[in-house]
Amino acid sequence: MDRKVIIAGNWKMNKTAAEGKALVEALKGLVADVCPSKADIVVCPPFTTIAAVAEAIKGSNIKLGAQNIHWAASGAFTGEIAADMLKELGVEYVIIGHSERRQYFGETDETVNKRVKAALAAGFKPIVCIGEMLEERESGKTEKVLFTQLEGGLAGLTKEDMANVVIAYEPVWAIGTGKTATPELAEETHNFIRMTLNDMFGKEVGEGVRIQYGGSMKAENAKELVAQRNIDGGLIGGAALKADSFAALVHNAIAE
């Protein structure tokens, strides 16, 4: 199946509003030649930077994402962000269940599921993150961990819901470490994820879901990774914080 490439930059806790605006102002010109039918380019700034970035990318081919969303519409949830708050700013994509949220802030498959459902109900496209720790990989538990995260995180979703869901596979041992799974190893794991989605939602749906790779993808390895049958793009950390490196990654990912 011909799935459109999606490259999303997760800025994490980086870039003030002024810095974020400067970054996307530079990025716009560098990726202006990328046809929207060829790839989705997404930037996901911190909450305080979203408004400035939203204004700066107007009229460009860059889409806007957020790094989290709460499942409640409003209420006593200090430090959280609601769907309407993001919608008002023009957000289209929302990262949910990133390994750092799981590792440092108590995110579970259950809370991921609640956030995903809230995002879908509000009309967002959730980027649902899954991935194993190094010790889980080394002890042969990768598939069990990923299956559990998929089953829990996507529980109760319909086939129609899945048309708007992106999966991001991020081997935790390869995030920000400079370590990258070989294209063959990454493809093997992406294929397992695809087969699991086929089992859960049917082959027609599973084959249509875009699965990103999120383990230290950069300009140098983007082409080889995205050339794999089941790797449909990347969730990018460090390489997304500079316009030139992110633009080069995007171009290499879609190169014939």
From TrEMBL:
Keyword terms of this UniProt record: Cytoplasm, Gluconeogenesis, Glycolysis, Isomerase
Main subcellular location of this protein, as a coarse class: cytoplasm
UniProt catalytic activity: D-glyceraldehyde 3-phosphate = dihydroxyacetone phosphate
GO CC annotation: cytosol
Gene Ontology biological process terms in this record: gluconeogenesis; glyceraldehyde-3-phosphate biosynthetic process; glycerol catabolic process; glycolytic process
Pathway membership: Carbohydrate degradation; glycolysis; D-glyceraldehyde 3-phosphate from glycerone phosphate: step 1/1; Carbohydrate biosynthesis; gluconeogenesis
Enzyme Commission identifier(s): 5.3.1.1
Residue numbers binding substrate: N10, W11, K12, G176, S216, G237, G238
Gene3D superfamilies (UniProt xref): Aldolase class I (3.20.20.70)
GO MF entry, a single one: triose-phosphate isomerase activity
Subcellular locations according to the entry: Cytoplasm
PANTHER family: TRIOSEPHOSPHATE ISOMERASE (PTHR21139)
Complexes and interactors: Homodimer.
Functional note: Involved in the gluconeogenesis. Catalyzes stereospecifically the conversion of dihydroxyacetone phosphate (DHAP) to D-glyceraldehyde-3-phosphate (G3P).
Similarity comment text for this entry: Belongs to the triosephosphate isomerase family.
Name the UniProt record assigns to this protein: Triosephosphate isomerase
Organism of provenance: Victivallis lenta
Gene name for this UniProt entry: tpiA
